[in-house]
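pls read this protein.

:::
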Amino acid sequence: MNETGHEQDFKAGLYVRLSREDEYKQNINDFSESIKNQKEFLTEYAIKNGYSIVDVYADDGISGTTFDREEFNRMLKDIEIGRINMVITKDLSRLGRDYIKTGEYLEKYFPSKNVRYIAVNDGYDSFKDENSNNEMAPFKAVFNDMYAKDISKKVRTALKTKQIKGEYLGTTPAFGYKKDTKIKGKLVIDEESSKYVKKIFELYLSGKSIFEISNILTKSEVPTPSQYAKIANTQKYIKGAWNDKSIRFILQNEVYIGNTIQNKRKKVNYKINKQVEIPKSQWIKVENTHEPIISKQDFEMTQEMLKRHSYNRAGAAIGRPQKNMHLLSGLLYCGNCKAPMTFIPTYKKRGYYICCSTAKRYKKELNLCQMKLIKETEIEEKIINTLKQITQKYIDKNKFETEICSSCRLRKTRL
């Protein structure tokens, strides 16, 4: 029987974690949070207390506000198969900074799996019922969560300050540019890819349509922006196809006249990594931050031409509706090359097939996607069935019918 009164052989898993939020600690000389030092500290603690170390799980550069961590998930799998029955961390914040999820692991998951959890510096030990530190754990979890929220605010403020100064904070520069190796946050012209940007503007200003330009670039084997990035890393040419969306994005991007526009998206909050669009009025635009590739005169002329040649969702020019309007036009994309799906009439025009526009357009020149035809009616039927399943699951049918009837009665009364 061990010191806790439990007859159990403890097989310990040491969990260590470090994230960017830890870099903002006020004491810059405090390196105790490093992965290496956490491992050494926990190893010494486990040996001193006679616990058998089975494995060490280390998540480096992962925020404590999320529990979707590679090594953490591996540790959970080892708990499930009985490989470990003890988890040791330096403190509660290493386990996590989301007080709700942290509480679930402390109060529900670990006890249900008979796993002993120890947070050394916080004096927490789940197998010591009389331990007063255990009672303080929920409060410490809340403080850890508040700390993460505070750090998130400070980081956002620091980033916004840099954006206002015109410093480029993105990971991948726009096609035609690269990051300056000497000045952080500055873009410089990439001599090779900038030639293609100039060519795109020249072709459009000469009267070529976006469709024609994408054909010309693809048949000339000009690498797309994503392919160019891969070529820079692997030095290997990869065949691919330009699409209208990429061309239009380049033609509308103010980066090519020397302007930097940022703050277009933001995270929902410090716990959720999902990003949402920000209204254009809140974008941060700084002019003349780097050398332009296109003159302002040519860029303004391009924008005027784009307005005249603008298209609606169904692909018809504004003011000239398309004859065959498809319900799913502009909403379907190829899962392989991400190009829009196109519609092809069936025999005697009794319906339509849907296929990848890249496969249809370049079936002879490229072998990127298969020319696989899917009936439009089949896709529509699947979408409708999926919507039915969603409504049946989340909508109260009786309540919905009552509201519809009430709405109808109210409308009749007004009439």
